[in-house]
Design brief:
alpha/beta, single chain, binds magnesium ion, binds 2-succinylbenzoate, 7-stranded parallel beta sheet
């Protein structure tokens, strides 16, 4: 396949909610979108790097854009690429920067699927017409507010509710939610806010039957998670520290995680995501698809990816209308009874809503 032309849009999108985690508060996102054109078709990709400061992992939009431009110019536009799974190899000499690479790589998969006239699900090797949805709820101003927001999302049918925690906002809030919702599938995500010294404190979460505790220790650590896992009953899930199939394999072998949160941006694209899917199935890791507050572009990629066999738990793939007054795609991506329909039609099955793109766009470049 050959990309004839590429476009880069950068949008400033206000979120419908204030999203607080242990690493900070988000009220909007700076969203880079790439559009690849070739053979009368086009493909879409979204960048999920941090909008301003590197608070989740180390990539930011400002850091990514020069690299994205270089990748498009030197390795994508006008270059013959046999298959989207080959792009990562062409970019392997550029170290790290997986979110920047994923933005371009996922667009190439969408373009490829469009050229085949098939849903991305089928091209990736997935199956099914819907995926199971959970929801990730930020730190709330009070326990009462938390009970309200949990109740509202449970009533909507979400199959798992994840609460953000941090030191000072953990055992009490989890105890209150578990007390009010004894049967809810409940998880907690600390985004790396604890240290091994907190192990005795984190053990106090064990009685509440969390399905898993996500990334309690540092974003770049695996070994200490293996040590922590030995002293907790609650299974550990790794998010930030799984960056490829090798780290997933290592986490399984060390016993650092029984569950993996897979985000296609964090691991550099769909090709690596499929390798991790294979590792998870072979190593008996449970897995689910994480979210990065995506627009409809990234959300549609997540939905198609979630149809692979290794995705055994509900993902952070909730309704787009929770996040945006007006999404940047024309199709509504909404959960029904806790499941998200897979957008049918070629590729990821969504098209840009150009009036919305133009309204929120702060930059537009063509390559
Ligand atoms: O840790 O999973 C995370 C959002 C931004 C950065 C990190 C995380 C998250 C979420 C939100 O949990 C998931 C979503 O609703 O998209
Ligand atoms: Mg997480």
């Amino acid at each position: 396949m050959r990309v004839e032309r590429a476009e880069l849009h950068v949008l400033e999108l206000p979120l419908r909610f204030r999203y607080e985690t242990s690493f900070g508060v988000q009220t909007g996102r700076t969203v880079p979108l790439v559009v690849l054109h070739g053979d009368g078709a086009s493909g879409l990709g979204e960048g999920v790097m941090d909008s301003r400061l590197p608070l989740y992992r180390e990539e930011t939009v400002a850091g990514a854009l020069p690299l994205v431009r270089a990748m498009l110019r030197d390795h994508v536009v006008g270059v013959e690429i046999a298959h989207p799974a080959d792009l990562a190899g062409h970019l392997a000499h550029l170290r790290g920067n997986r979110m920047a690479k994923a933005m371009v790589e996922t667009a190439l998969w969408d373009l490829h699927a469009h050229q085949l006239g098939a849903p991305l699900r089928d091209v990736l090797g997935g199956s099914g017409t819907s995926v199971e949805c959970g929801v990730s709820l930020g730190i709330q101003p009070s326990i009462d507010a938390t009970l309200d927001v949990v109740g509202a999302h449970a009533a909507e049918g979400y199959r798992r509710i994840k609460l953000k925690i941090e030191p000072g906002w953990d055992v009490e809030v989890i105890a209150a939610v578990r007390g009010a919702f004894p049967l809810l599938t409940l998880t907690a995500d600390a985004n790396g806010a604890y240290t091994l010294d907190d192990a005795p404190h984190l053990r106090r979460l064990d009685p509440f039957g969390l399905d898993y505790l996500e990334q309690p220790l540092a974003w770049d650590d695996i070994a200490q998670h293996a040590i922590l896992a030995r002293s907790l009953e609650t299974p550990l899930c790794l998010d930030e520290s799984i960056v490829d199939a090798t780290t997933a394999e290592l986490a399984a072998q060390l016993g650092a995680a029984r569950v993996v949160n897979l985000k296609v941006g964090r691991v550099g694209g769909h090709a690596e995501a499929r390798r991790i899917d294979a590792v998870a199935r072979r190593a008996g890791l449970a897995m689910w698809c994480g979210g990065m507050l995506e627009t409809g572009v990234g959300r549609a990629h997540n939905i198609h990816l979630s149809t692979l066999a290794g995705f055994t738990k509900p993902g952070d793939v909730s309704s787009a209308s929770r996040y945006w007054d007006a999404d940047v795609v024309e199709q509504a991506l909404e959960c029904v009874d806790g499941t998200m329909p897979v957008p049918e039609g070629p590729g990821i099955g969504v098209t840009l809503a150009m009036p919305v793109v133009e309204r929120f766009r702060v930059a537009h470049e063509t390559f």
